[in-house]
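Dear support,

We are seeing what looks like truncated structure output for some complexes. This example has two components. We would appreciate it if you could run it in full and send us the complete token output so we can diff it against ours.
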Amino acid sequence: KNQVEQSPQSLIILEGKNCTLQCNYTVSPFSNLRWYKQDTGRGPVSLTIMTFSENTKSNRRYTATLDADTKQSSLHITASQLSDSASYICVVLSGNTPLVFGKGTRLSVIA
Amino acid sequence: KAGVTQTPRYLIKTRGQQVTLSCSPISGHRSVSWYQQTPGQGLQFLFEYFSETQRNKGNFPGRFSGRQFSNSRSEMNVSTLELGDSALYLCASSPGTSSTGELFFGEGSRLTVL
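Here is the complete output from our reference environment:
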């Protein structure tokens, strides 16, 4: 069964600190992996899309990694800001089948 | 360029009623997909329409249906509402299909079933 597991479920960090969110998937065959940020009460916003051949991709203070062999991805947030408080959702695409979503990691950045 | 617009943003219904939600995609986008988001299950795919044709359907009962019009606007309908249908319903548009293109989400329609 195609599944996407994210950890931790929730995380609290101090402003200015770094953190790493994890995503493990069993989706096969693999097409691409996406990370979304969802602020409370808003729709998700795309952070990055990674294909099979991409190991690392950066978008401002967000760096995503992908290990297609171990079927793991991570999202590293550098120098966190209060505005980073949100849910981060990992999504995996397999061929032309519907996207498979993780349940997200709820990040809280506190002053 | 205007983003994805969903209406209504909030609505309250009672069990047994039916509801219709609307989604206007970004201009030029031909794909509209719908998702249900609940605290327990996270985001789950409902269906996707591309050029007025249903391209994919998630694992939801037949009470959930949708359609897409020639101007790419889409509607989804839920009949015989149940308490468990309470959720945030999100739609997303894409310039290609949801498989090939980036998804742009609307703010969602929050449905409460009493």
